[in-house]
Amino acid sequence: GGDIVMLTSGDYYGPCDIIASEPLIGGEVTIIESLDPQIPAVFHNGGGDYILSVAGPVVTLMLMAFTDVPAGTSAIELQSGSEMSVRFNAFYDMDGDALVTTGSVASALVNDNTFTDLGGTAMSLGCADGSCVLAGADVHENLIIGAGYGIVFGPGSWGVVEDNNLAAISGVGIGLAAGASEATIVEQNFVESVGDALLVSGSAQVHSNIAIGSGSLVAVSSPDQWIRGNTLIGGLSLDGWGNESGQQFTNNAVAAAIPTTGAVAITGGNVDCRELATCFYDAEAWDFYPVPGSDLRTEGRELGEPLLSDWCGRGRGVPQTVGALEAASVLSFGAVE
């Protein structure tokens, strides 16, 4: 434990197995990174199911680039560990998956990575069949442009997904599965997908996101689902809602029909924005700031614990604006009040 591996610029070919030893001193981390972040080490698939396979208690992978990953294989495979970090890496031009977990990981930090032109999944966190669990992911400030799937959690896995930007996703943008011991927090993300932008199953708090897709939000009813203060552009499905405890769907700007059933869960403050111009400055340009006179500015309700910030991180008003962007004392992306 406590080793630092500095990689010189150039091309590297997997597969490569990295097994970190137990740290001799608490807090020691095995770090693998490029010596020159301006000209990073570039990893290619040289045959096998992965480029890097990582196991060990505390490992950080950072400042590297990954490409040429065939379909059915992955760039980074997290086998097992107590604290894994994947930070400031670039994944591009690959048919396979970028980051997957194949064993149980106690916690993982995945931040400030870029994923572009992927045929597979950007992040697959926890095994799809539930045989391995990621118990505490912190996924923030990643950029994903062009991928089959974006950020997908397996059954029993959970974490915080915050401040990520996803566009040109073919399938699910951010997907949560049921069975986790903790609620997953999904907030302040931008997701644009051909398929379902947000797919929510299991306990979750989904706040202040902008989601665009053929299905902007598909929520499979589970206890303790709070979906509040989002801008949802596209189809809406609340499957089985109204029969579970701790559910709340409120203060959302929805460019789709808002269900009238499930009165326990559909708690009001939502605004129908199918006529986009009545709600937003320029939805076609992704400017979802509420226009003057819009119901978004007046119909917000205060229910339960208030939201503290909008999609941009600005403080919420009282009562808060409906949707992901707060109207109080701020400017539109493209217009000045």
Structural class: mainly beta
Rg, nearest Å: 21 Å
Strand content: over 45%
Helix content: under 10%
Termini separation: 56 Å
**Average of per-residue pLDDT values:** 90
Low-confidence stretches: 329-337
Please work out how many helical segments DSSP would assign. Answer: 0
The largest sheet, given as strand count, sense and whether it forms a barrel, is: 20 strands, parallel
Oligomer: single chain
Please count the beta strands (DSSP E, at least 2 residues each): 34
| Principal-axes shape call | elongated
Strands, helices and their partners?
Layout: E1 4-7, E2 10-13, E3 16-19, E4 30-34, E5 41-44, E6 50-55, E7 58-62, E8 65-67, E9 74-80, E10 83-87, E11 90-94, E12 97-101, E13 108-111, E14 114-118, E15 121-125, E16 135-140, E17 143-147, E18 149-153, E19 158-162, E20 165-169, E21 174-175, E22 184-187, E23 190-193, E24 196-201, E25 204-207, E26 210-220, E27 225-228, E28 231-239, E29 248-250, E30 253-254, E31 266-268, E32 271-272, E33 280-282, E34 287-290
Parallel strand pairs: 1-4, 2-5, 3-6, 4-7, 5-8, 6-9, 7-10, 8-11, 9-12, 10-13, 11-14, 12-15, 13-16, 14-17, 15-18, 16-19, 17-20, 18-21, 19-22, 20-23, 21-24, 22-25, 23-26, 24-26, 25-27, 26-28, 27-29, 28-30, 29-31, 30-32
Antiparallel strand pairs: 33-34
Summarize the structure in words.
The structure is a single chain. The chain is mainly β and 337 residues long. It is built from no helices and 34 strands. It has strands spanning 4-7, 10-13, 16-19, 30-34, 41-44, 50-55, 58-62, 65-67, 74-80, 83-87, 90-94, 97-101, 108-111, 114-118, 121-125, 135-140, 143-147, 149-153, 158-162, 165-169, 174-175, 184-187, 190-193, 196-201, 204-207, 210-220, 225-228, 231-239, 248-250, 253-254, 266-268, 271-272, 280-282, 287-290. The protein has a 20-stranded parallel beta sheet that branches. A 12-stranded parallel beta sheet has the order 1-4-7-10-13-16-19-22-25-27-29-31, with no helix packed on it. Strands 33-34 form a two-stranded antiparallel sheet. A hairpin with a 4-residue loop joins strand 33 (280-282) and strand 34. The chain is elongated and about 60 Å long. Residues 329-337 have low confidence and may be disordered.
